Amino acid sequence: MGRIVRVLAVLLPALLPGLTAPTAAEPAPLPWTGSWESAPSGTAAALPGAAVRNVVHLSVGGAAVRVRLSNRLGTRPLRLGAVTVALRAAGPDAVPGTLHTATFHGAPEVTVPPGADTVTDPVPLSVPARADLLVTVYTPDDSGPATYHRTALQTSYLARAGAGRAADEDGGAYPATTSRWYYVTGVDVRGIAAGSVVAFGDSLTDGNGSTPDTNRRWPDRLARRLSEHRLGVLNAGLAGNRLLRDGTGPSALARLDADALDRAGARVLVVFEGINDIKGTPPASDPAAFADAYRALVVRAHARGIRVVGVTLTPYRGYPAWTAAGEAVRQGVNAFIRTGGVFDAVADADAAVRDPADPERILLAYDPGDHLHFDDAGMAAVADAVHHALRHLLRPAPPGHPDVTVPAGPTAPRLPSAAG
User: Fold this and answer.
1) Where is region (Disordered) located (predicted)?
2) Cα radius of gyration rounded to whole Å, the chain
3) 20 to 30 A from 121, CA-CA: which of 33, 92, 106, 190?
4) Under the phi-then-psi rule, with left for phi > 0, alpha for psi from -120 to 50, and beta for the rest, what region is 115?
């Protein structure tokens, strides 16, 4: 009898499927979207035994986070002894009850090979839009040169005796400060965000000239303007970066995948690169070379379903490296950006920040004093120009649906540039 019962248990579900209870389909997991980024800019001396409490400012929120960490520019294996995340209360203090230890395939630590990146497992931490997050990284060993981002324009904190301190909610063990971000290169969120916009550029995007510890870079300003669309904004700016050749970090073409196209949920790429090539040594003198590089960027982005906004190069007369020949190149490059038909939309930052009475210079109200970068007001003007261009790519969702969607690159209808 027992054998008959066992046979029937196997055969009946197949013979009489209508008599068995249906299995509920598992809901699809919510997608990951990039909420914050910093591009590796170089290396600093290792901090063996220390814990760095990096302060990062998110753009969009979500119900969980994961952290990207990098040994991309290191030369030796990097041992991460502990990584924690928490909402920031003030200074190095965490909001009580929000600190979580991140894991790597379930383990509390990981060793990252030189030249490689890693990402944590999902951390069940609900984060609101535009929140400050503490990402604390403890490195127990001397792992050689530390991959970092130099121009953070954000105060982070350091515990020299970091063993066990990554899990501190109270920041009392973090008396030292740093103006760099160590190891951390991104924070993704899982939730209802509609995707992200990647701001890809040099120091003008990185934030030079804006007020530190205030999040007034133009990508930060843009994030506020896009909040109603639930679009994240990732700052892939790198001070000193060039379009055509390596400078500070690899060239734009060389770092495009790692710093832009591979980022979670990337929907739009905003390209604001080239002025360092014009004023560099040797200076780039052929606008056609810029045109070829821009075309290559756009082709690669479109192949990934990502639309591209081109940003005109802004004035810099008065800066020590300015020359009349360089100005002629800038004008030629801008003519191509505006009318070349390569970009899906154009943000005319040149028109937004130049002095109408002297268009080879930045408007005095936007100039922090070096005649190249932008102060807080200038950053807001650039953000407005990019936001205006993005309106050509953002299309309203069907009535009754709160989302705003971004059409994919190679399969969407061709949109005219903002220049017409």
Assistant:
1) 396-420
2) 24
3) 92
4) left
- Angstrom CA distances, 174 to 57, 84, 116, stand at 19, 14, 28
Cβ–Cβ < 8 Å for 336, 298: no
d(CA 243, CA 142): 34
Confidence at residue 395, expressed as pLDDT on a 0 to 100 scale: 61
> Residues 6 or more apart from 99 whose CB is under 8 A from it?
84, 85, 86, 134, 167, 169
Q: Which residue has the tokens 């903002």?
A: 418
What stretch of H or E contains 255? helix 252-256
User: What is residue 16's predicted lDDT score, i.e. its pLDDT?
Assistant: 37
Residues 6+ apart with CB under 8 A from 55: 88, 132, 133, 134, 154, 155, 156, 157
Ranges of the chain whose pLDDT falls below 50? 1-23, 396-420
User: pTM (2 decimals)?
Assistant: 0.88
Q: Residue type at 172?
A: G
